[in-house]
Specification:
The complex is a heterodimer of chains A (222) and B (323).
Chain A lengths: L1 E10 L3 E11 L4 E5 L6 H8 L7 E6 L2 E2 L8 H5 L2 E4 L11 H12 L3 H14 L15 H13 L5 E5 L7 H16 L3 E5 L3 H7 L2 E6 L2 E6 L3
Parallel strand pairs in A: 3-8, 3-9, 6-7, 7-8
Antiparallel strand pairs in A: 1-2, 1-4, 4-5, 9-10
Helix pairs in contact in A: 3-4, 3-5, 4-5, 5-6
Chain B lengths: L10 H4 L3 H25 L1 H37 L3 E5 L5 H12 L4 E7 L1 H12 L2 H5 L9 E6 L4 H12 L4 E5 L3 H42 L1 H9 L4 H44 L11 H27 L6
Antiparallel strand pairs in B: 1-3, 1-4, 2-3
Helix pairs in contact in B: 2-10, 3-8, 3-10, 8-10, 8-11, 10-11
Classes of the chains: A alpha/beta (222), B alpha+beta (323).
């Protein structure tokens, strides 16, 4: 599903954010990406989302060299990826329902079909009863769940999360990770960047560890 | 290169037919048109000020254009009244005057002729000057017979050539034409047209700047939203759409205000202008924007608003890159 082939990313001509990254993630896998802040986790995710392009090497997602996508094709590529952000990136001027419906609106999904999918996604994260609320009325954990609902409403084949539990207490963090495991169980490829090592150790999934832009460990846990 | 193959689980969204896609597209247009109108109405004073700035920029060139348009109408009337007066030699009798008139009428470029005999000329002269008593005391009629010639082509150069040809006809003493004022009027009109065009271009640029600046602020205030929708796969067209509608609404609003200002202005000027015209014995009224003129004004202002928004959005979208 994801293949990094000797990928390097250099900023400003001299600073290597990533160097010689080489790994593969199979379809339907769940993978953690760990490392200290500044180790290159976010840069790696940005490469997959094609917010950045590699300075060297190749990034292939779903069999395609995404560096060769024409810029007009990038939006359509991104629609196949669900992304969860640490600061959830909700829009505070509209309701929970409309936040979750945003990807469907962008794709021009018919309204009744969109409503069905939005409610299904909200139901999955346990927030169906709050669909009319504004994001500001929700707690941090609930906001993050809305962010997850928005990421999966489109039934993406690949779900990326960048520090999704960064601001949450341990119990809420475990709940959020449980949601990612649920989506992985129904076939979604999931990649979660996190530095919550204790939580990651408990969950027992394959873990890629980055340090100073290099892939220092790839631990497959059976 | 082909678009990436949709992965199996995302396939359903890719399968919607062309008709569905088009409906969705049209629906988004309607939604964005309504949404951007609501955003304008939410800040009524700010929106009104922007529209007023646009209106003021449009009123001056549009008003000048209207004035020139009426001058053109006047010019057309004047062209029709452009005539040559051909004075015949003094000793030409009435019968011979008739023959000369026919000779003149046969010249190329002559549309119509009218013979004024010496007696008719005297009668007109007396009437016009109110000197009946004084002239009646004259023993002989000092006026020659004349032929008024209407040229087929009122172009000054053509009229001048015709005058030379007519002067060569035997029995013609003198050909009078006064073209200088007509030419001056034309030069003035041409000057006016250029000034209007230059002002129009300048003020159109002004409208672009006004709209562009307003839209720039709108883009800035919705920066986070733009970043988010770009991250989740919005195309540039999708991101641009609400701003383009805002620009078009600003343009349309400004155009309507300009239309109102122009109507008020011509109402306000109508009385003194018709009084002035009446004092010259003419009837002249400022023409109003008809259906066609109104459509052009509103169309241009809407287009300018749209274009200003397009320039501003494109310029600023390039700067907004998701973090």
């Amino acid at each position: 599903m994801i293949a990094f082939e000797h990928v390097g990313k250099r900023y400003g001509g001299r600073y290597d954010a990533l160097a010689n990254i080489d790994f593969r993630v199979r379809r339907g896998e769940m993978v953690f990406l760990t490392g200290h802040s500044g180790a290159g986790k976010s840069s790696l995710l940005r490469l997959i989302m094609r917010l950045e392009r590699p300075s060297r090497g190749r990034v292939r997602v779903a069999g395609h060299d995404i560096d060769r996508l024409h810029h007009s094709q990038v939006p359509f590529y991104r629609r196949q990826i669900g992304v969860v952000f640490q600061d959830h990136q909700l829009l505070f001027d509209r309701s929970i329902y409309h936040n979750v419906a945003l990807p469907l609106e962008i794709q021009g999904i018919e309204r009744r079909e969109a409503a069905r999918r939005v409610r299904a996604a909200l139901d999955k994260v346990g927030l169906l009863h709050r669909e009319a609320a504004l994001p500001i009325e929700l707690s941090g954990g609930e906001q993050q769940r809305v962010g997850i609902a928005r990421a999966v409403v489109n039934k993406p084949a690949l779900l990326l999360a960048d520090e999704p539990t960064g601001n949450l207490d341990p119990q809420l963090s475990a709940d959020i990770m449980g949601l990612f495991e649920d989506f992985n169980r129904i076939g979604t490829t999931v990649m979660v960047a996190s530095h919550d090592l204790a939580l990651i150790a408990r969950l027992r999934h394959r873990t890629l560890r980055l340090s100073e832009g290099r892939l220092v460990a790839d631990e497959e846990i059976a | 290169m082909s678009r990436p193959e949709p992965p199996p689980r995302g396939a359903r969204t890719q399968r919607s037919s062309g008709a569905l896609r088009w409906r969705a597209w049209a629906r988004h247009h309607r939604a964005m048109a309504a949404d951007s109108a609501r955003r304008l109405l939410r800040r009524p004073l700010g929106s009104l000020l922007t529209m007023l700035a646009i209106a003021i920029a449009l009123v001056l060139p549009a008003g000048l254009w209207l004035t020139l348009d009426s001058a053109r109408l006047l010019d057309a009337q004047l062209e029709q009244s452009a005539t040559l007066t051909t004075y015949l030699e003094e000793d030409v009798g009435e019968a011979e005057a008739g023959r000369i008139e026919q000779a003149l009428a046969a010249q190329a470029g002559v549309a119509a002729t009218r013979l004024i005999t010496a007696a008719e000329g005297m009668a007109e002269f007396q009437q016009a000057l109110g000197l009946e008593d004084a002239l009646a005391r004259l023993e002989t009629n000092p006026l020659p017979a004349s032929v008024v010639v209407h040229p087929a082509d009122a172009d000054p150069a053509a009229v001048r050539r015709l005058a030379e040809a007519l002067a060569a006809v035997p029995g013609v003493d003198e050909v009078r034409l006064d073209l200088a004022w007509l030419e001056r009027l034309r030069h003035l009109a041409a000057l006016g047209q250029r000034v209007t065009l230059a002002l129009g271009v300048l003020f159109a640029l002004g409208v672009l700047l006004v709209v562009g600046n307003t839209i720039r602020l709108a883009v800035e205030s919705r920066r986070q939203e733009i970043e988010v929708v770009t991250l989740i796969g919005a195309t540039h067209a999708f991101v641009r759409r609400p701003f383009l509608y805002s620009g078009a609404w600003f343009g349309l609003g400004g155009g309507l205000l300009a239309w109102g200002l122009l109507s008020l202005g011509s109402d306000w000027l109508a009385a003194p202008i018709s009084a002035l015209a009446a004092s010259y014995g003419a009837s002249f009224a400022l023409p109003r924007l008809g259906a066609e003129g109104s459509t052009i004004l509103l169309g241009c202002s809407t287009l300018l608003g749209w274009l200003g928004a397009w320039l501003a959005v494109n310029r600023h979208l390039a700067e907004i890159r998701p973090r």
